[in-house]
Amino acid sequence: MAQRPKLHFLSDNNVPDSVGRYLRGRGHSVVRIRHWLSAESPDPIVAEAAMRSGRILISWDKDFNAQRFLAPRYAFLSRLAFSCRPDIAVERLKQEIELIEREWLSATTRRAGRMIVHIGRQDIRIRR
Question: Residue 64: left (phi > 0), alpha (psi -120 to 50), or beta?
């Protein structure tokens, strides 16, 4: 069995703490944005903090405006985005985590600029 990559995440304020606990339990590094920035920090500031720290931003789609982050200045913003109900987020993550880790490892090996993973209620989408 291949060793899992250690991923580095920055969790937005509206992401349940249970998501971070689960990821930490798998050996990943998770920092809550509230430990770095004000809770009222606008999305572009949160995105910039993730890029500058080299972390994958965990966000909740209903709050985080994805369209504006397609602009060239966000070309290196990697995201793990949820759009399912908060009470099933960890369960959905558990169902998809091995695929997510494998894809991020592959993207890192190829030195892809970014990767965006979107976990919905019944689906997962991965975009590079």
Answer: beta
- Greatest CA span in the chain, whole angstroms? 43
Residue 107's identity, in one-letter code, is: A
pLDDT recorded at residue 100? 95
- Positive or negative CA dihedral for 77, 99, 59, 33? negative
In the predicted model, residues of the chain with pLDDT beneath 50 are: 1
Query: CA-to-CA distance for 110 and 104, rounded, in angstroms?
Result: 10
The residue type of 84 is: C
CA 60/CA 41 separation, integer angstroms: 15
The strand pairing partners of 35, in sequence order, are: none
Q: Which pLDDT value is given to residue 60?
A: 87
Residue 36 phi, psi (nearest 5): -115, -40
How far is Cα 97 from Cα 21, in angstroms, rounded to an integer? 14
71 three-state secondary structure = coil
- Residue 18's DSSP bridge partners are none
Neighbouring C-beta atoms of residue 46, cutoff 10 Å:
20
